[in-house]
Fold these 2 entries.
Entry 1:
Amino acid sequence: MKLKRQSAVLAVVAASAVMLAACGSDNNSGVAGAQAAGKSANVACGGKNTLKASGSTAQANAMSRFTQAFGATCSDQDINYNGNGSGAGVKEFTGKQTDFAGSDSALSAEKGEIEKAKQRCGAPAWNLPMVFGPIAITYKLDGVDDLALDGKTLAGIFSGKITKWNAPEIAKLNAGKKLPDQKITVIFRSDESGTTDNFQKYLKTAGGWDKGTGKSFNGGVGEGAKGNDGTSQALKNAKGGITYNEWSFAQAQKLNVAKIVNSGGGQPVELNAASAAKAVEAAKFKDEGSKDLELNLDSIYGTKTAGAYPLMLATYEIACSKYPDADTGKAVKAFLSVAAQGGQEGLDQNGYVKLPKQFSDKLLASINAIQ
Amino acid sequence: MTTTELERPARPPVFHHLSTGRKARNHLATVLVSLAFLIALVPLVWLLATVVIKGWRALVSPDWFTHSLKGVLPDQFAGGIYHALYGSLAQALVCAVIAVPIGILAAIYLVEYGRGWLARLTTFMVDILSGVPSIVAALFIFALWISTFGLEQSAFAVSLALVLLMLPVVVRSCEEMLRLVPQELREASYALGIPKWKTIVRVVLPTALSGIVTGSMLALARVLGETAPVLVLVGYSQSINFNIFDGNMTSLPLFIYNQFTNPTAAGQLRIWGAALTLILLVMLFNLIATVISRFSAIKTK
């Protein structure tokens, strides 16, 4: 009797599980407000059905857009991207867990990554810079909503040499504006982050930063906060605070973004889609003419092009030049072609740079050479 | 002697009237205890209220429980958590299918058969296992399943790590329940000439069943929210994947973790919505446990 009652309960649980399994759907098309993904020309779909990739969290939202465009162009094909950090992404790629990696830095020879990737692929792996996310200098200063800074001043502020908002260095860049006599509160990322790494590299190239680079902040001043979320929250609560954020967070949290005078001098550059694209356009590669598109980052950080925004984080897709398994190669190639074309639509809404035509053409040439 | 005289106590009561001081102290203690209770309640109510206020909007969307996030843009209010809900349930149920039988058998051994060094060793090991942090369990399975055996990341690997976390809880609760079964029941059974194994199967287990089921359900609810194993042992996916042995599979904690990188309002809503769903799911399991134990409890009369 009792056992019967129990099996009844179990049956109810099992039945609801089956019902749950039956009513799920992957089909989200036709949702109100959904934009049609951009068209991608000349994409040869096919190959492996579901690709697997992992790595940089900075490009996670761009990946969502690429994935949507991929599904729209190549129906029946899908990709899973796991944003678990650049280091993990490269490890999983060389360990054959994933089909390609997303990383905020190119494969490093010192860490032996180039060699490991070569072993994994049976051919050299290529760094393909696909996603550019500008880093915004955000600040909170009562009565000031238009502020210009340059590399030297930023290096001074973030190393504690400039401590007041009305310091002569800042005043010089903001002639005619009233700056308060207030202490500057520096807020930095307390966790290891590619954003910090790129920010410090920028300071080194453009501002003579001598504190060293790397994923943790070396400035030695200010207060730390974890993640983009943490720093934007801390900024909102700090009087006279300044920090650096991924652009998407600055947009979403409606923070004040400083204009930057780039290494060419001239007018302060506002951070927007056009100014960021200009810097990408002027970017140079380490080895011009090679299919491996590792960037010469100094050409971006130290850009002298008028109206180019110099501070940004580049994310590479690291893929094999020739895959041991042709099916995988075909699918990776299809996905990357879609990402470089139709996937670019609307990227600026999520705080990324839409690749300029000239740049994406170079990228496509490399992608098309993947086997 | 009249009856009233008989009913009168032999000695008049000593504390007929309580002094004001005692009353005051009694009231003070009552107030303090109630206050402590209320203070303990504050974080719980606060947390629940925050999650409900920020997350209910996601749950009332028609697609929330029936659709995945496939093809949904980061800043779009669309799609749902069906894929994550399925992942959480599948991983937890597979874990339960492995951990509950092993746990019950281990508990039976400890209570009915265990004597000497082996029983002491088992108890000791269960104690150690219950103190293992979830990330250590996850890394152990990673080292074994992926590094040593060379198998791919999968939802099944997550289930294996969850087994390590669930097993000690099941063993512990079953052990307690079996010990509660009166010795007289066993003796009565032996007196009728029934062998020990049959006594355990037919007398001891049914008596303890409601407690065992409740304990297992609570252990299941406990592992549902584990984050560390899903971060290490399986990848994120925005689509539905029914296969626990192959490919990425999202669970609710992984879904929440993944949406942290999405600063848009839609992303924030998804985080709170998924948190609320997880709380509701755990609550549902606790409710099922209560119902099962109510239905399967031994009738005392």
Note: The first helix of chain A runs from residue 2 to 22.
Entry 2:
Amino acid sequence: MSDDPTAETAAGEPTSTSTVDSAEHDENGPDANNDTTVSVEREPDLRDDDAPDPEEVPLRVDGLRKEFGGITAVADASFQVEAGTLTGLIGPNGAGKSTTFNCITGVHEPTAGTVTFRGEDITGLASHTVANRGLVRTFQIAREFGEMTVLENLMLAPGGQRGESLWRSVLPFVRDDVVGQESELRERCWETLEFFEIDHLAHEFAGNLSGGQRKLLELARALLTEPDVLLLDEPFAGVNPSLEERLLDHVHELRADGYTFLIVEHDMDLIMDNCEHVVVMHQGSVLTEGPPETVRKDEDVIEAYLGGDV
Amino acid sequence: MSTADSPLAALWERDAVKIGVLLAGIYLAYVLVGVVLDYGVRGQLNSIATLTFYVALFALLSLALNLHWGYTGMFNIGVVGFMAVGIYVMAVVSKAPATEAAAGSVGGLGLPLWVGVLAGTVAAGLLGLLVALPALRLRADYLAIVTVAMSEMVRFTFLSGTFQRFEVGGLVIGFGGGSGLLLDFGSPVEQLFDALFLGGVYDGLVGLTGTVIENNPQPVTNGLLYGVLLLGAVGLYYVVLGRLGNSPFGRVLKAIREDEDAANALGKDTKAFKTKAFVLGCALMGLGGILWYMTSGAITPNTYRPRLTFFIWIALIIGGAGSNTGSVMGGALFAALLFQGPRFLQSVVNNLVDVEAPSTFGQALAPIAGAGDLAPLGFYVIDSVRQLQLIVMGLVLIFLMHRRPEGLLGHRKEPAASVELERRPDRETPYTDGGETDE
């Protein structure tokens, strides 16, 4: 079933590997249109099979396009993330993965296309709104709050904290309420620290952590916002193999607990070994998607990774 | 983390003690010098009142600035503009009314003092909101440009002839232009006591002072009590801003300072947080301006030049941005050493030796070339202390930025939470098998 779109995309892009960047824009226009029509035809099929229930498919991206001036970073991206899965988004450098990510999470406003989260259109919403809806991201380069302790970093994350209102945090009596909530929060944060095995670092400034520990911290922090779907932007980049193993264990454990993940990654093997569903992007468009076994054998994917671009 | 091993060190760990010790040291130094110079009781009390005045005000204003810069990372170099708006609005609201009949004079609305103080504070906050709406979308350095430009716009507005005097409902009000405004509402201290129906108590206090000061003890008592009032205000700022900082709200502010995008990605509406913090800080600056100039008798726009802003910045940097305790200590040190210190030194030298200062720099240098006599240059320096003060401040600022950018108290860990974070809760939570690992 997932072979069909692959075949169609393959037929649609026979020359893409040999095109030069500048020439590509002229060509991309009609090309992108082609893709859109293809995906429009393709999507209903998928939906009919998988039922477009927002419960089962919390995140859907349709015909996403993002241009920066004359550069088209994402030409046409359509894919969906099913609940409780590990979905991998891979592609060579410059394929538009990170831009897609940024468009989904409200960092960039897409030029065209829609992002649907749990049945609601969230295209172009501010990033904090997107996060509060339950779609939370991490960053490619971990962005910890360096001058705050690890525990503070975690305490920040949970939403709906009463003490985040100015008057509640200052005025007597109502502040007791804040203190009560904070004590509960502290418990939760310690549990999370223990889960990620970084409790010994609780009082360290986050800026003093190693690269890998920062990745753990960032994942922990994102989790504390109680998201439905987690978008991880290259969570394993610059992480040593043993820590990578640990991170992966955590991710699998969390997925078993019902979290949904969309992971952007360079490392093809890692994605192929761990994800149920893989989306391959190339030159701003979705080249193919499907289960790892299918994607691995796909000629276009092999070419995109090993051919033309090298 | 250094844990205290002796009771004395444990005491030192407490922030209030640090502030108290510093203040005690400053006062002791001033009193001792006063004793050596044979100031007399009146001189001593006046010197203490002046010192308290500046210590408290710089502490207040650096606390307010700390909310902007230390907590949230908002680069506000328009502090003086908010102070000016505070005191001007307060003056217009509380000055005695004047009608057209009293030609040439500018009056006010004649409302009670506390209404004026409130109005001035609110006005400074509103100006903050006005600045925040467009400027907080900008990056830090652009916010700096906007705020400093705003403070100059405020000064020129008060200076302009257009707003010098105008009529509202039969009352002549205005900002007085270049000639400024007379603050004719009397001593705030006396009014406060009267408002609290404690006028009699106050008269008793004045009488008490009269036993040690021969004639007219009232101004001295006023000065001292106003100082006490200001220290009370410092305490209030310290508590309010401390609670604010040690709360989820303060935590978000710190996160914004560290990485706004990341805070946004965690679902925090950073723009709203920044606006709230900015407006509150501006209102506190406005109140600071009111407290500073309320007793000065008259205000003119040119007092509110940007250099006042930089004084407060230096105070904050001395203490260490990000710490309320540091802000208070920095404010006190700045006031005692850099702001009042040189003037104090000048009077000390004037008292000890007969200063015959040459009138020009040339005349000061000539004797060195001739007989190698350094005294005239020394006298010249002492005589120009007020001008040299700025150079000294500049040098101190450069030195601090080089050697100790984290401020007096060093790199402190002040976790922002309303509960104790340092201790681990007692309850064991076997959430996972790997609770204890050392890596």
Note: The first strand of chain A starts at residue 59 and ends at 68.
